[in-house]
Amino acid sequence: MSSIKDRQRAAARARLEKEMQERSAAARKRRQKQAIIGTAIAVVVIAGAAVWIVTALKDDKKSTSTTSSSVPAGSVACTWTPDTGGGKVKDVGTPPATAPNTGTATLTMATNLGNIVATLDKSKVPCTTASFTYLASKKFWDNTKCHRLVNEASFKVLQCGDPFATGKGYRDTDGQGGPSYTMAEENLPTDTNKPYPAGSIAMANTGQAGSTGSQFFICSEDTQLPASYTLLGTITSGLDLVKDVVKAGDDEAFKASAGGGHPKKELDIKSLVMS
């Protein structure tokens, strides 16, 4: 009887040991599979990261080369920033993204008093020249008037360039208009004694960097101003017309704020062309 029970217990132990061995083997297989899968995922992730890095580097190189190659030789890149200053906007689009920086351009204003001609040096004001060329092609300044005059000691200028300063007489809003973009200043004066000499044509702005638009001023005499305004060019013909307008005086409409007023002698721009 005891021998039968012993045999039964031995058989039970053998089955239990076999089950434990089978379970242990199955567990080892699961761990091996998990390790292999984990390693494979890590390899995929690392490989993917390597591919992304290589691709990103290629894209970066491609982008850099595209940017540099997109500016032709003898040109510079220009930035036209949307105007958010709150003034009146005449939207005629924006100039090309690049501009020639060699040679000169001629600005000719046909006015009710005669022609005023200026020379612009593209090596000094490439983007401003490009802006003038573009706006002139859109007849931006045609049939406008010079809306502000200042006739003070060492500050004698005639300001023009607001596309909305049109028609007979003056309005309170004259001087608030411009294109849909602004640009960075160029060719700022370095001569502190004569920053804006007689015959200079320079760009007006709000006093903030990068606020140059379409308005400009002509200096009838040497003018002392902060060196914050782009020196656009030099009047080669017609400065006498500007001097006559300045001498005629103004109505002091801006005396309490910016200075000066509306010119008593109107100067109307019939057309402004660039060549």
From TrEMBL:
The keyword Transmembrane applies. InterPro entries: Cyclophilin-like_dom_sf (IPR029000), Cyclophilin-type_PPIase_dom (IPR002130), Cyclophilin_A-like (IPR044666). Residues 111-274 form the PPIase cyclophilin-type domain. PROSITE patterns: CSA_PPIASE_2 (PS50072). The chain crosses the membrane at residues 35-57. It comes from Paractinoplanes durhamensis. Residues 82-101 are annotated as: Disordered. The lineage of its organism: Bacteria, Bacillati, Actinomycetota, Actinomycetes, Micromonosporales. Keywords: Isomerase, Membrane, Transmembrane, Transmembrane helix. One of its GO terms (molecular function) is isomerase activity. Gene3D superfamilies: Cyclophilin-like. This is Peptidyl-prolyl cis-trans isomerase.
